[in-house]
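INFO  loader      accepted 1 record
INFO  loader      residues=382
INFO  predictor   begin
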Amino acid sequence: FSPRPNFSLKNTQSFPLTMALARIEKTVLSGEPLTPDSISKYRICAEIANKAVAEIVKLCLPGSDIAQICAFGDQFVHEQLAQVYNHGQVEKGPAFPTCISVNACEGNFSPLASETQFLQAGDVVKINLSVQLDGYISSLGHTHVIPAGLPTEPTRGRQADVVCAAHFAAEAVLKLLVPGTKSSDLTAVVEQIAAEFKCHPVEGTFTCNTKRFVLEGEKVALNRTSMDIEKAPFVVLDNDVFHVDVVLSTGLGRTHEGDFRTTVFQRDVSKTYMLKMAAARTLLTEVSARFPTMPFTLRSFDKRALLGLKECVEHGLLVPFTPKYEKKGEYIAQFRFTALVQQKGTTRLTGHELPFVQSLLKVETPHLQAVLQGKPLEQPSN
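INFO  predictor   done
INFO  writer      dumping tokens
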């Protein structure tokens, strides 16, 4: 959601690489095809992500503390991973910390206890997390709507419109995620379905591939055509693994930074700098050992360690995932899931039951209906 630089695993930090980072570098540079073992690990992560979101949804009630829910989500992931692959040294943990982003907030909201917010009836709540086992990552982003009235009555209005739009757009991307599909086709279908519900894709959001130890790969399909963001076109291939991530807004889809502190960061291992503050050096060493390539939350560190945060960020060693916001009064919905592309068919690994909403709008354009029905994409005639 926030700045996502193209990390390189060459010319790494001046601090000695941990053994974990050395293994990651070797894996990423060499690449790795899908195997029964890797697919199994993707599935284990997906099962944990699905369980975590199911438990988090139960906690999303009026008056609930967002910071406590985020902490619960991370702890749940750790506890579930502790039950698998306990023999030998296997990297495992959250690949993206639990974020609970409400209404006009696009994402990346994972507050400290001292800076929390509380949920209210009618909130459109985006739950986002990722799980990794031996570097294989499964992600799940889900939108839940807290009922403002009777639970037996669906949520209507613009909240329902954007939830339905994001759901159908994500489903269309999944249908098109087959070998041979162009990245431009994925962007186009998201934009077109968003328009059916009078919504807009949020700028800078995208679907991308993932690899072992790489949360966001080089294949990036923007949800929205942009003159300011250039991404190389690609074609979906057999054995690709994607994090489909559709983020739509009832507004114009243009977000800005808000007043809340950024708490999610990621180590940029391509950057080097001789830090001056002892606290900064200590923090970077701990980050490199515990979170060498995956995003992390400040909740994972004590206050003394965070004294060096500013210097690390100023020199690009830690990259912030900043919460961004649409115009007040607008709503943003997100559906994110991991999918394996294979010749025999594309498999969606993560997901959760949809919220109870009802929109007066629907997908009416025939070619979009055809996509949602799984029919091959029509190619323009010459």
